[in-house]
Design brief:
Largest sheet: 4 strands, parallel
Number of helices: 23
Radius of gyration: 25 Å
Helix content: 55-70%
Distance between the termini: 28 Å
Strand order of the largest sheet: 4-3-5-6
Structural class: mainly alpha
Number of strands: 6
Length: about 550
């Protein structure tokens, strides 16, 4: 069923950076819900939070209450010092515990599973525990490095005696080898790795602090905004901004670093300019792209518009710099990462004292980007009209996918909007083939759980799941769940897995017992109707 992608893949350093960034993103994105939970708990229950005066609940959950005064003896406490040097039993609470232990462990476990499955995740968690308790700050960078490294070492260790263990001793060897290796790595992490990562975090934090002190933080947009369009942003965002931002948020309750890359304003400005001053397919498709970009948080949908006219790089850079400068002036920031970069996610993550600055940063960045983009488009409008829309959107979409190194369902949907639907539907059928080869399998396997899987388990797969879910609902079929998740998180419980064609092999390796369907475009595939029909036939036969 799988067909090879026709997208030309870039090579060299760009691919290396993209793969590195994608790997970092793969560790962070599946755990965004945990970051959100921590951010909300922090906002509500720290002493300066919305419910910080709710005695004694906030005192216990926020981790600042005196257990001797509150009297609740069933929660974990630690000794804290008064200004006069005396000590008292202070509640540990959820805020500090989650950011110190839970979040780094989740990242490490996810990274370990990406490298070496469940076994890698277990050893990664053990190893990172040494790094966590061996430092005095939340160890996100350490988790992102030690987790995958520990899993890789485990994988290499297992290769040493692969096929050499006598039957009946496999579990004994596997459990003890993983336990002993985890112990060793945890000790190494405590005494060596932890201090090294503390030094790196301190150094990077110092650079950011210096940029803030000399009012140069907006200059980061010169790097970040072009990197986004070229799909090089994940390495910067998830490798630097996210861990440093979380550390800042733990100390101050918010961080400006979460908004340097996630601000939807610059992209919104470009799309608005094409809506009013564009020509041809770009003008017609821009309004729909605005909804996906601004409210859905899928920023990649505006990248082709920038690539159509590379001078628009100046627009997004200027817009990004404006947004960062505005947040710096108002000392505003987010409590936790806004992922995806939707205005909804941004507002939900905004610190209580930062709404004015954050909202202005989005408005002003969009305004600057719009004005510059409009100027550039107006200057070339006559030429574009004379050449029937010079700067082919389809070519720009292809260039964007080439930069990404793979096809994109979101961009595929944009391509569909800018072309003839019937022609594209026919082409889609030609690429994808039919489901006839799966009919036998379907007949023997009850389809109750359908999963859309992609790299991150968000964005495109979520939209695809929504499309099929609506089709199943309209067909009057009950008892079938349709969800989306990252390929790395497939646990073997899915009856049918739907992936883009270039990812199907990975999904099969992760969940071999499921029925696998490859599609070219999550948003508009004729295979969905065939899946619905097979599910309907199966349920009618029950």
């Amino acid at each position: 069923m799988t067909t090879a992608s026709t997208v030309k893949k870039p090579g060299g350093a760009r691919v290396a950076v993209q793969r590195f960034g994608t790997f970092l993103s793969g560790m962070i994105m599946p755990n965004i819900a945990a970051f959100i939970a921590w951010g909300l708990i922090t906002t509500l229950f720290i002493s300066a939070g919305w419910l910080g005066k709710w005695y004694p609940v906030a005192d216990m959950l926020g981790g600042f209450g005196d257990a001797g005064k509150v009297g609740w003896q069933h929660a974990m406490t630690t000794l804290a010092a008064n200004p006069d040097g005396t000590t008292f039993p202070q509640y540990v609470g959820l805020v500090g515990s989650m950011i110190t232990y839970l979040l780094p462990l989740l990242i490490a476990n996810t990274g370990g599973r990406m490298v070496y499955g469940e076994r890698g995740g277990v050893v990664a968690s053990i190893a990172v525990m040494g790094v966590i308790v061996g430092t005095t700050i939340p160890m996100f960078l350490g988790a992102m490095i030690m987790g995958p490294l520990a899993a890789w070492i485990t994988k290499q260790m297992d290769k040493l005696w692969d096929g050499k263990i006598k039957p009946g001793f496999e579990m004994l060897v596997n459990n003890f080898s993983a336990g002993i290796l985890g112990m060793i790595l945890a000790i190494v992490g405590f005494f060596a790795f932890g201090p090294i990562m503390l030094g790196i975090s301190t150094f990077l934090g110092g650079i950011v602090g210096w940029l803030v002190s000399v009012n140069l933080l907006p200059l980061l947009s010169i790097i970040v905004e072009p990197a986004k369009v070229l799909f090089l942003n994940n390495a910067i965002n998830h490798g630097v901004f996210t861990p440093l931002g979380i550390q800042q948020a733990a100390e101050t309750g918010k961080s400006i670093l979460f908004l340097i890359e996630a601000n939807p304003g610059p992209g919104l400005g470009v799309l608005l300019a094409f809506t009013f001053f564009g020509v041809g397919a770009a003008k017609a498709s821009a309004p729909g792209a605005i909804i996906i970009q601004f409210f859905g948080g899928i920023h990649e949908i505006y990248f082709p518009y920038v690539l159509m006219k590379p001078i628009l790089f100046l627009s997004v850079i200027a817009g990004g710099m404006t947004g960062v400068a505005t947040n710096a002036i108002f000392n505003s920031g987010l409590r936790f990462p806004a992922a995806p970069g939707s205005i909804i996610a941004v507002l939900l993550a905004t610190a209580p004292d930062s709404y004015v600055g954050v909202i202005l940063s989005v408005i002003l960045s969009a305004t600057v980007s719009f004005l510059l983009s409009a100027l550039f488009l107006i200057r070339t409008r006559k030429r574009d009209l004379a050449t029937e829309g010079a700067g082919d959107l389809s070519a720009a979409i292809a260039a964007t996918e080439a930069n990404k190194g793979k096809e994109s369902s979101t961009l595929g949907a944009l391509r569909n909007r800018s072309s003839n639907d019937d022609v594209l539907a026919s082409a889609d059928r030609d690429v994808e083939g039919s489901l006839s080869g799966l009919e036998g399998a379907v007949a023997t396997k009850q389809l109750n759980t359908i999963v859309f899987a992609c790299d991150a388990g968000m964005g495109s797969s979520a939209m695809g799941a929504s499309v099929l879910r609506n089709k199943i609902k309209k067909a009057g079929i009950e008892g079938v769940t349709v969800t989306n998740q990252a390929i790395a998180n497939l646990d073997g419980t899915a009856d049918l897995v739907i992936t883009q064609n270039q990812l199907t092999d990975r999904a099969k390796a992760q969940n071999p017992d499921a029925i696998h369907v490859s599609v070219d475009n999550f948003m508009n595939s004729p295979k969905y109707d065939e899946v619905v029909e097979m599910v309907r036939s199966q349920h009618e036969a029950k």
